[in-house]
Amino acid sequence: MLAPWLGLHALVSALATWAALAYARRRQLFDQPGERRSHSVPTPRGGGIGITCALLAGCVLLAITGKPLAPVAGYAVGLVLVAGIGWVDDHRPLSPWLRLVVQCLAGLALGWGMLAGGTPWGWALLGAALVPVLVNVWNFMDGIDGLAASQAMLAAAAFAWLAPGTSAAALALAVATAAFLPFNFPRARIFLGDVGSGTLGYALAALAAAAAPQLGGEGALLLLLPLSAFLVDASMTLASRALRGERWWEPHVTHLYQRWVQSGRSHVFVTMLYGLFGAFAIALAMALDRYSSLPRGGSVVLWFVLAILAWAGLQRDLAPANPSREDA
Predict the structure, then answer these.
(1) CA angle 185, 230, 261 (to 5 degrees)
(2) CB 75, CB 208: distance < 8 Å
(3) What is the CB neighbour count within 10 angstroms for residue 318?
(4) Residue 30 pairs with which residues in a beta bridge?
(5) Nearest residue to 228 via CA among 129, 306, 315
(6) Cα(84)–Cα(81) distance, rounded to whole angstroms?
(7) SS3 letters for 190-253?
(8) Could you give the CA distance from residue 105 to residue 114 in angstroms, rounded to a whole number?
(9) 65 Cβ contact partners less than 8 Å away, ≥ 6 residues apart
(10) How far apart are CA 265 and CA 144, in angstroms?
């Protein structure tokens, strides 16, 4: 049954992304190049709705095949909220605080579904809290071709390995994202848009929340490793801006991946380098999962310390960024 399940997600994602591309061209829904962008030609946005459609199609299939309705419904409602507010924002800019409120509501919907499905309340609360965090992390980091999609695909594949109980859902996300990726990398014909980055962040939050109880204790910390490239770049960049007294919630181009592009590196180079970092992090997670005698918590902390030191060194070495520019 796994092959048809994954085939459904790949097919729906690819077809819906193709339809979104045609829609964006017809509606003139373009991100324009300029001083505040990382691309050089007008590019359609909103293509991530293809991934959203694939995940919702999976929810419908689960519901009609007799799976417990409450967890599926909670997940689906949260996904619609996050993707819906992102889709509206792709058409006309909305207040970031309004988006945050909707994302928190989506987290509550996910947490309710987990509770109704028998998940202990502590883990359900974790799921609710993870939604606005990862949705915004993926939104902040979605600024160059292929980066956000490839990192989500790698993380989803890693979750499938680390928590076999979530493997069908995790592989579905990985396959749906892989079907979108040719539209976005190595040269973007369409961007994810807020609908897509929100969908990826939400889906990863839901997967992490579902996988954590299976791994328990220190084992759950391993789920941070596949997310570490984005968690470090996003958190350290925002912390640095806050310490400088900047309006940290406003768009900017001071993330490490943006600084790298500003220094002359191509989108392909930076995306592949982040992918290599992610692959090393996943390999470490798999090694720690296989050898339970290794100190998991300490190893995860050490990895993040080293990643933060590397981030700081690279930020120092790269050319200064213009703080007036914003994410693509």
Answers:
(1) 50
(2) no
(3) 17
(4) 44
(5) 306
(6) 5
(7) CCCHHHHHHHHHHHHHHHHHHHHHHHCHHHHHHHHHHHHHHHHHHHHHHHHHHHCCCCCCCCCC
(8) 14
(9) none
(10) 11
DSSP-H helix ranges across 65-116: 69-91, 96-116
Given a cut of 70, is residue 36 above it in pLDDT?
no
Q: What does the CA dihedral 245, 251, 254, 257 come to, rounded to 10 degrees?
A: 150
Q: Which residue has the tokens 């790298």?
A: 260
Structure tokens at 171: 């592989």
The whole-angstrom separation of Cα 57 and Cα 259 is: 38
pLDDT, tens digit, 9 for 90 and up, residues 65-81: 988 999 999 999 999 99
Q: Which two tokens stand for residue 67?
A: 């799976």
Are 51 and 57 contacting, i.e. CB atoms less than 8 angstroms apart? no
Q: In residues, how long is the chain?
A: 328
The ranges assigned to domains in the chain are 2-317
Residue-wise pLDDT for 134-173, tens only, equals 999 999 999 999 999 999 999 999 999 999 999 999 999 9
Tokens standing for residue 178? 């892989």
Ranking 40-49, 130-139, 190-199 by mean pLDDT, the lowest is: 40-49
Residues 6+ apart with CB under 8 A from 63: 69, 72, 73
Residue 186: asked if its preceding bond is cis (omega within 30°), the reply is: yes
8 A C-beta contact, residue 48 and residue 196: yes
- Joined together, the tokens standing for residue 84 give 């819906």
CB 106 within 8 A of CB 201: no
Tokens 């058409």 belong to 91
Helix (H, G, I), strand (E, B) or coil at 33: coil
In terms of Cα–Cα distance, which of 321, 149, 161, 318 is closest to 230? 149
Cα torsion at 97, 102, 103, 107 (round to 10°)? 140
Which residues sit opposite 31 in a β-bridge?
Answer: 43
Other Cβ atoms closer than 10 A to 88: 16
